[in-house]
Amino acid sequence: MAKKVTMQKIADHLGVSKFVVSKSLSGKGGVNETTRERVIQAASQLGYFTQKNAYVQSIKRTAQGVGSDRNKQSVLVLMPNIRSQTQDSLYWGKIVDGIALALDNEGLGMVIVSEHRADNFVNILNPNGILGLVGVGQISTSLLLEVHRIGLPMVLIDHEDPLIPSDTVFANNVDSMSRLSNHLMGTGHTLLHFIGNIRYSRSFRDRWIGFRSALEESGMRLPMEDDEMLFLEGMDDGSFRDEFRNWINKRKKAKTLPTALICANDFIALTVSEVLKEDGFTLPDDISVTGFDNIEDASRGVPPLTTVHVPKEAMGRAAVEKLLSRIHNPSAPLEKILISADIVHRESVIEPRG
């Protein structure tokens, strides 16, 4: 039988005091961020978070709590106001709509919190009045640690943390992007390029993996690992325009223009399309462009954007269903739920010129 992982064991592993470990795991001050991260990482590697009753506070959330008195219960929706993660977003807002509808059908309330600092989050959190948490988008490890510390059941949408165990809900990014890439190759494209920062999020990285695997299986040439278009900054506000413009014009002068650009999401694709048209390219005659997510603006592009439809409301509903299931069965294995996503064919893709 494996020995229990204690705070002292973590302290010995790192060569620090048990006091430092306790401060780091409790979310209290007095420990710098670098040390806190080292403690959290070591605790995760040693299995501290996965053992039962490791350090979480005991909060009663039984099946009865999701029953006759459920109208008195609420679910916390945590969507830190970073990047473009707001209710007004054409992507994130639809996910929140799905959460709200699913909770309403269950007679449950919803409390939306956009806090992104762990210390402020602790001050506003009342675990006794919250049934569970649905996290939407990128959330810091320190925030998730606080949720885990108090024993609040949680499900994350479009995000996962390697240090904090939880159920997650994603679109099936790898398979969907692979199908989209194969469609382009089937149309005749042999010079394809991925546009987006593959370190930006788990979804972007998975979309890159789907693109790369499709090209590898077809024997196509891949972008270099240090290609600047794989590490774009400023994707939330479109400030990558100049970087992309310089890159595409270099490719034009070198006569190595891609025949198709596969973008990590629709906003990138629409911004790329604008830059191309400003620089005299005709779309899709000169270059085909695709997106991902199928936000409302995708169909309004000129030309309308071929993309992948992510069922955003369905992801929200699936997260609520998983959260309620987790509350009923807290010891069940953690799950990563993948929601199928389909290609939407529009006018931004044609056969490449001979």
UniProtKB/TrEMBL annotation:
A Pfam family this chain is assigned to: Peripla_BP_3
Name of the featured protein: LacI family DNA-binding transcriptional regulator
Key word DNA-binding present: yes
Highest taxon above the source species: Bacteria
CDD domains recorded: HTH_LacI
Gene Ontology molecular function terms on file: DNA-binding transcription factor activity; transcription cis-regulatory region binding
SMART domains: HTH_LACI (SM00354)
Keyword vocabulary terms for this entry: DNA-binding, Repressor, Transcription, Transcription regulation
